[in-house]
């Protein structure tokens, strides 16, 4: 991953204010919507200073006994997903399957890594990915299919996002589901930079999450579940997690962050975080809604007699839970995202130093907005561009895609997304 710094970019584009020339090949990323890049610059500086203990790699747990997830076992076949390849797409069975000891719940130990994603934390607690929280492409893609009957295309794209945006390593295909474990994820010793894991703020992890604080509002802890926010999730959705309820919640969280967080940034990757909220009804629930009880168990929280919630750090699969029958893939999640987003749209962009909010341009996002008439295919292209275009990320400046990442994406996905006629990748270097 090649990371261009914002200040270097600003310096090189004096002649074209708002347009960043990446790589000198004449291809420009249009950031003209962002009239003031100071928020990006300040955030970048702040992270470089690395003053938050929560984000310090030295405080990242280290389990010297890394055990990969158990190999696929024909006695407990789930949807037959193995080796990172597509399974049979058939769900509707109980998870874990009765008698499957490899996948029983075990609470994480003090040397195990957990992070901002309730889904990955749960998969690690059940051993569908390595229990120490250092996982890889194959484990992640198999687990999403076997446990949730997520379609291969969606499982692959979200896993690639973690690798390609710099949370993990595109050569080893490993990533940490939480804090910076570069010594264990990097294929070769890194000369500069690090692999921050899913905690890495502004890569995949973004502001205005449902259950996690914003990075700069919580001294770098944007990964631990906040029970006040969980209570808000239940209240705003009315305790039934439907698409419409979640749309209200995401809209509310966006405005809350925009007001409270001077460093608020909701870049193009916000789209992925937003779309993941559709997993509540679609993957945890029956496709229409998910109950508070189900969501609470998956999120590892428990209600006390006085109504308050406690976080037990024990994300798990509810007793007797069954996976959805039909696979849930890229087209499904994009359709859900559009429906939820367009019901109560929010802007893509960030707060500026003088307290204004600036919208940005990225693919079909213009001036921070997605047009209500956008097609599903054009939205899929946005996802594709997130993988293959330089993405204005928060902390690392603009995330630029190197050839290793490009090669991984194109060799893995083949024509899955190029068939749609999406604009070609820019600036592969
Ligand atoms: C395949 C690999 C996956 C990766 C790399 C991944 C990564 C992430 C990351 C980095 C976040 C934080 C986004 C933010 O800051 O808002 C997140 C959020 C989330 N993920 Fe995952 N995820 C994966 C799979 C799953 C699965 C299988 C599920 C459940 C079915 C899931 C459910 C969620 C939910 C519900 C959130 C939102 C949490 C919130 O807003 O508080 N994820 N994921
Ligand atoms: C980062 O550290 C430098 C040197 O200590 C300091 O001058 C600067 O103000 C810090 N920046 C931020 C945003 O904290
Ligand atoms: C949890 O979220 C609430 C509401 O945003 C906030 O006031 C509180 O400081 C957060 N608590 C922690 C421990 O981060
Ligand atoms: C998780 O922890 C809570 C509180 O400590 C406890 O009540 C609950 O039974 C635990 N759940 C599992 C699956 O271990």
Automatic annotation (TrEMBL):
Transmembrane segments: none annotated. Gene3D superfamilies: Chloroperoxidase-like (1.10.489.10). Coiled coil: none annotated. Its cofactor is heme b. SUPFAM superfamilies: Cloroperoxidase. GO terms for molecular function: metal ion binding; peroxidase activity. Pfam families: Peroxidase_2. Residues 101-335 form the Heme haloperoxidase family profile domain. Keywords: Heme, Iron, Metal-binding, Oxidoreductase, Peroxidase, Signal. PANTHER family: HEME HALOPEROXIDASE FAMILY PROFILE DOMAIN-CONTAINING PROTEIN, STERIGMATOCYSTIN BIOSYNTHESIS PEROXIDASE STCC-RELATED. Belongs to the chloroperoxidase family. This is Heme haloperoxidase family profile domain-containing protein. It comes from Cladosporium halotolerans.
């Amino acid at each position: 991953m090649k990371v261009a710094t914002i200040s270097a970019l600003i310096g090189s584009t004096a002649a074209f204010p708002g347009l960043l020339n990446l790589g000198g090949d004449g291809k420009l990323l249009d950031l003209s919507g962002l009239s003031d890049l100071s928020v990006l610059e300040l955030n970048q500086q702040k992270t470089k200073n690395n003053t938050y203990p929560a984000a310090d790699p030295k405080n990242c747990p280290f389990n010297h006994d890394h055990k990969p997830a158990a190999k696929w076992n024909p006695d407990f076949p789930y949807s037959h997903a193995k080796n990172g390849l597509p399974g049979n797409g058939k769900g509707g069975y109980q998870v874990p399957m009765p008698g499957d000891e490899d996948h029983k719940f075990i609470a994480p130990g003090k040397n195990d890594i957990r992070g901002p994603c309730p889904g990955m934390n749960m998969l690690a607690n059940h051993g569908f990915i390595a229990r120490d929280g250092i996982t890889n492409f194959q484990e992640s893609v198999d687990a999403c299919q076997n446990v949730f009957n997520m379609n291969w295309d969606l499982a692959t794209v979200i896993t690639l996002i973690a690798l390609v945006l710099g949370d993990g390593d595109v050569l080893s295909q490993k990533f940490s589901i939480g804090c910076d474990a570069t010594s264990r994820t990097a294929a070769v010793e890194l000369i500069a930079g690090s692999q921050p894991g899913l905690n890495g703020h502004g890569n995949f992890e973004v502001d205005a999450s449902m259950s996690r604080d914003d990075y700069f509002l919580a001294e770098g802890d944007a990964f631990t579940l906040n029970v006040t926010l969980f209570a808000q999730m239940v209240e705003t959705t009315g305790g039934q997690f439907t698409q419409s309820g979640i749309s209200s919640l995401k809209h509310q969280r966006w405005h809350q962050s925009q007001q409270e967080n001077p460093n608020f940034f909701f870049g193009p990757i916000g789209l992925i975080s937003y779309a993941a909220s559709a997993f509540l009804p679609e993957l945890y629930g029956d496709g229409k809604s998910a109950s508070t009880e189900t969501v609470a168990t998956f999120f590892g929280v428990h209600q006390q007699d006085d109504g308050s919630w406690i976080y037990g750090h024990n994300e798990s699969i509810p007793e007797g839970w069954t996976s959805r029958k039909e696979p849930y893939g890229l087209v499904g999640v994009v359709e859900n995202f559009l429906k939820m987003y367009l019901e109560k749209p929010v802007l893509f962009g960030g707060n500026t130093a003088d307290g204004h909010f600036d919208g940005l341009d990225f693919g079909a996002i213009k001036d921070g907005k997605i047009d209500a008439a956008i097609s599903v295919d054009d939205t899929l292209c946005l996802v594709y561009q997130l993988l293959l275009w330089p993405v204005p990320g928060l902390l690392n400046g603009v995330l630029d895609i190197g050839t290793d990442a490009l090669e991984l994406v194109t060799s893995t996905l083949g024509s899955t997304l190029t068939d749609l006629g999406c604009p070609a990748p820019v600036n592969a270097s």
